[in-house]
């Protein structure tokens, strides 16, 4: 069976290789991490524009002050999201249903982690708001990236 392209040419591979919904795990992961980093860097910049000091006391060294930097924001966005995403995808090889569990758990954890900067940091309000929004920005990255992998996995199994 062949199909015709819009230009009128015949494409013999179109019928034999249907396009699966969702994304391959590596594309979903890269897009999720990239989107989270981009969103958090935008929030970081907006925080500076709003007058946030982007500093807070160092919990490990009382009396010391930590500067929040763009590099620190990028690393703090990439590391937990990438580790959690890879762990979820790896565990989904044992049980496809784990992707939904990870989707819910990861999103809830990202939202709950907002309490740390919002309630526990002794800093100015604009910095607390900016850092809290950065935690919130991870929630859709987790939800949609794992959702794309889940959609592809379910299409493969026919569920």
UniProtKB/TrEMBL annotation:
InterPro entries: DUF6069 (IPR045713). The chain crosses the membrane at residues 28-50, 70-95, 102-121, 127-149. It holds the Pfam family DUF6069. Keywords: Membrane, Transmembrane, Transmembrane helix. It comes from the Bacteria. This is DUF6069 family protein. It comes from Nocardiopsis mangrovi.
């Amino acid at each position: 069976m062949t199909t015709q392209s819009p230009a009128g040419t015949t494409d013999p591979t179109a019928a034999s290789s249907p396009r699966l919904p969702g994304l391959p795990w590596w594309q979903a992961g890269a897009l999720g991490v990239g989107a989270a980093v981009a969103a958090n860097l935008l929030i970081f910049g907006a925080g500076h524009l709003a007058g946030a000091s982007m500093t807070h006391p160092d919990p490990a060294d009382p009396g010391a002050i930590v500067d929040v930097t763009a590099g620190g924001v990028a690393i703090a966005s990439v590391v937990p999201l990438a580790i959690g995403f890879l762990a979820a995808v790896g565990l989904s090889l044992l049980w496809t249903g784990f992707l939904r569990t990870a989707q819910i758990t990861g999103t809830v954890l990202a939202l709950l982690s907002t309490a740390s900067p919002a309630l526990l940091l002794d800093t100015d309000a604009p910095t607390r708001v900016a850092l809290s929004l950065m935690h919130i920005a991870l929630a859709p990255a987790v939800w949609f990236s794992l959702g794309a992998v889940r959609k592809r996995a379910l299409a493969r199994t026919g569920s």
